[in-house]
UniProtKB/TrEMBL annotation:
Pfam families: PRK. Residues 1-112 form the Phosphoribulokinase/uridine kinase domain. InterPro entries: P-loop_NTPase, PRK/URK. It comes from Myxobolus squamalis. Keywords: Kinase, Transferase. GO terms for molecular function: ATP binding; kinase activity. Gene3D superfamilies: P-loop containing nucleotide triphosphate hydrolases. It comes from the Eukaryota. This is Uridine-cytidine kinase-like 1 (Trinotate prediction).
């Protein structure tokens, strides 16, 4: 599965959630289970509205409507070798994936579009 493709992200939910947070509302953010490739049923993180909200992640600037909700934008580009190392460590430790699957996914989906 290509987690790095825009279709893998629920931008409508992200936009709605960020709008509510900016209005000071409390929101519940679903917890995603990478081992089952789905949101965990009846499990979420409760987040309270605040004056400062940090949004990070892949394609945060991609959908125009989401990008327009951000008051300040910072992009940090990390060396591709370091990104791969971080991905391997995260996926093995937090997502229970094996090295071969991680490298296959990286070579098939991530690396080909890194500099598109």
């Amino acid at each position: 599965f290509d987690f790095d493709h825009p279709d893998a992200i629920n931008f409508d939910l992200a936009i709605e959630t960020l709008k509510n947070m900016k209005m000071g509302k409390t929101v519940n953010i679903p917890i995603y289970d990478f081992t089952t490739n789905s949101s965990m049923k009846n499990k979420s993180n409760t987040i309270y509205g605040a004056n400062v909200i940090l949004v990070e992640g892949l394609m945060t600037f991609y959908p125009k409507e989401l990008c327009e909700l951000l008051d300040f934008k910072i992009f940090v580009e990390t060396d591709s070798d370091l990104r791969l190392c971080r991905r391997v460590i995260r996926d093995m430790n937090e997502r229970g994936r094996d090295l071969d699957a991680i490298l296959l996914q990286y070579c098939r989906f991530v690396k080909p579009v890194t500099y598109v």
